[in-house]
Specification:
Blueprint (H helix, E strand, L loop, with lengths): L14 E6 L2 H7 L5 E7 L18 H13 L6 H14 L7 E3 L1 H11 L2 E4 L2 E6 L2 E7 L4 H5 L6 E5 L2 E2 L5 H8 L6 E8 L2 E8 L1 E4 L3 E6 L3 E6 L6 H14 L4 E5 L6 E2 H8 L8 E7 L2 E7 L10 E6 L6 H11 L4 E4 L7 E7 L13 E10 L15 E2 L4 H6 L3 H11 L1
Helix pairs in contact: 1-4, 1-6, 7-8, 8-9
Length: 410
């Protein structure tokens, strides 16, 4: 997407990140790609359904293929590119769009994007039904301004078909220097549309807050980053200090981010020990994440806004608040990203920060809401469905926010 658990500085300890559709790297790269829904840094599973495979693959046939290619290819081959191609093909053979290999350059880009700094169009990319889709255009950035919408299928990038492209490949083609343009052919419904987007520097604010109608606190979370919990906590305390009577939590268009941030945000409403999510592998619970305390907003009437662009960590938070009876959900069904990925740096140390020989992002589990539901591909349905029409957008109306305010004030 992106959701990610807080990153350890030296990455010596396990860090979880939830990548909603392709993690911010993938997410931010194309303007955003985090796809995300659950990323563990350096986390390796001791149990696997693949234990029956040999400890080492027999590369005899690969060496034979290499020999024939080297002897007969009309052109100059690059050893590094050949090795990267083998690794990419090996990982892609698993058939999971969220399991990917990044070479050293791609790994650096990925890490930079997770840090929230990149040049692109400001749209999170994901994979759905073997197609590259827009998960969420980020408010105020080029993708949104150009008219891209959640669920748009990207059919071509600068005239090149996206068939068989991974999200990362699409992201790398959409990324580029600030001020340059990228031409996208998207399919919306059954209608192909050509959209040209001018790239820009993408900087995503994490949390914004204000007061509505004097006594209702409005907290908008646009991504789940390292500063989200601190900023949201300050916003929550400010709400209490101003005698706020209710909260509108806006997570529309939020592609996800750090898992720790989702747990921390949920903890502003949930008492310590309440389940936020469970992580399962092969149907077995691997870990249960619970609220950490500091429930400043516990008991305060809350409505959370979600839409098709709400993914990963946003869905974790929405599910936790809904299942624990801490908030009503208003808007439209969320994106639906319920898998968990682990980030493994390859090379001298799997836990080292620098990816000496690349980076492996591998799906290791599924996450479940407190009520035991996995929302992958299904999303979370709001308690009150409110659709924003094209006429609403043109007129500058926000019926979802208006409904949330109405419910909070009842």
């Amino acid at each position: 997407m992106k959701v990610f658990k807080k990153r350890a500085k030296p990455l010596a300890r396990s860090t979880v990140t939830i990548i909603a559709v392709v993690v911010a790297g993938v997410i931010f790269a194309s303007g955003i790609a985090v796809g995300r829904s659950g990323l563990h840094y350096g986390h390796q599973n001791t149990e696997s359904a693949n234990q029956g495979l040999p400890a080492h693959l027999d590369y005899t046939s690969v060496d034979q293929l290499y020999t024939q290619l080297k002897q007969n290819f009309d052109g100059k081959l690059d050893e590094t590119k050949l090795l990267d191609g083998i690794k990419e093909g090996l990982v892609k053979a698993g058939g999971d769009p969220y399991t990917e290999y990044f070479n050293t350059t791609g790994a650096k880009d990925f890490q930079d994007q997770l840090d929230g700094s990149f040049s692109g169009i400001g749209a999170e990319l994901g994979s759905e039904n073997n197609a590259i889709v827009i998960v969420s255009p980020i408010a105020g950035f080029p993708a949104e301004k150009a008219g891209l919408k959640p669920k748009d299928i990207i059919a071509e990038i600068d005239g090149k078909s996206t068939a068989d492209m991974t999200v990362s490949e699409a992201v790398s083609k959409i990324r580029g220097e600030k001020g340059t343009k990228v031409k996208l052919t998207v399919v919306r419904g059954n209608q192909p549309i050509q959209i040209e987007v001018t790239r820009d520097t993408i900087t995503l604010p994490s949390v914004k807050s204000s007061m509505l109608d004097g006594n209702v606190c409005y907290i908008q979370v646009s991504r789940f980053g390292e500063d989200t919990v601190d900023l949201a906590t300050k916003a929550a305390q400010d709400c209490k200090d101003k005698n706020g009577t209710g909260v509108v939590l806006d997570m529309r268009g939020n592609p996800g981010g750090l898992l720790d941030a989702a747990v921390g945000l949920s903890s502003l409403w949930l008492p310590q020990g309440k389940t936020v999510l469970q992580e399962k592998r092969d149907g077995k619970v691997q870990r249960t994440y619970t609220a950490t305390g500091n429930s400043i907003l516990k008991g305060m009437k809350t409505v959370a806004l979600i839409n098709e662009g709400s993914a990963s960590a946003s869905e974790i938070t929405a599910g936790a608040l809904k299942d624990n009876g801490a908030a009503q959900l208003v808007g439209e069904k969320s994106f639906g990203k319920g898998s968990v990925q682990s980030l493994l740096n390859l090379g001298s140390s799997l836990l080292g920060k620098d990816a000496k020989e690349g980076l492996l992002k591998v799906t290791i589990a599924r996450w479940y809401t407190p009520a035991g539901k996995n929302i992958d591909k299904a999303g979370i349905e709001p308690d009150v469905k409110v659709v924003i029409t094209d006429d609403d957008t043109k007129a500058g109306r926000d019926p979802q926010k208006d409904k949330a305010l109405e419910l909070v004030k009842q």
